[in-house]
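Format notes (please read before filing issues)

Several people have asked whether sequences and structure tokens are stored in separate files. They are not. Every record keeps both together, in the order shown below: the sequence lines, then the token lines. Line labels are part of the format and must not be stripped during preprocessing.
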Amino acid sequence: MNGQPITYFDRYKKAMQQEAVYGDGALRFAYETLPGRALGWLFFSRPFFSAIFGWWMKRPASRKRILPFIERYGLNVSEFLQPPESFVSFNDFFCRELKPDARPVDAALASVVFPADGRHLGWQELGTEQRVFVKGQQWDLEKLLGGDPELVQLFTGGSLVLSRLCPVDYHHFHYPVPGSMVDSWWLGKRLYSVSPIALRYRLSCIWENKRHLSHIQTDSLGHVLFIAVGATNVGSIRYRCPRGDQSFLKGEPFGWFEFGGSSVITIFQPGRIRLSDDLLELTASGTELYARVGDRMGISCAI
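Then the structure lines:
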């Protein structure tokens, strides 16, 4: 498993791609060696480590990293709302917004959309998955939801989509469905990496990490859970101020991550959604699907 490249299927290019991993050497040391795993538990996963790194990425001196990063990873500057030279720090660039037409939202009434740009895995029915990144790993819904018995009962056997954002991605996340906010709360303290390099070894990093849960009520999909998961160097999850009635439309901006790569998880009640065929087929083979925010993730079963 050591040194194994990260590959995914690109929905638009209709081909397998190899991921260019930011900080690949450090990640492989931290998760593919015994000394690295020990340091990860003692040091790298602690919130103060991410806080220090985040502080540095907000300093004006970090601006010099922006243009080399854009060139190395081939980012599409024409999508940016602001030109690269306008950013005052690397974190300012990392949290960049896109032009309004850069991410069109699937307009079909029954469609549910991906909440973020990224590499996605989806399971139609929790409890039946054979592998999550590697064979034998499964979701622990009780731990993921902090042991809340009512929520666990509500979503047992439901559908789950994991959307993994890399440092090269647009790091704002949007509402995958129209609805209203019931409640929201924080769980977890650690900040492990959520790269496949780490998750191949231990999926539990996700439910040990600092995360924010949002309980959403919808007309056609019933209850939906949206979970923003922090990670190493991503201690800050930011949210837009909600409107007074706290209702929202599909595809509306929801929040963003500050520097680093992270994940969002969307969970649906049983029988409420039919996930897209390409997402299900690729997930069954252990392959992530690259798709952008606003593109179709599935179809509501109620419309």
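For reference, the curators noted about this record: The chain has a mean pLDDT of 85. The radius of gyration is 18 Å.
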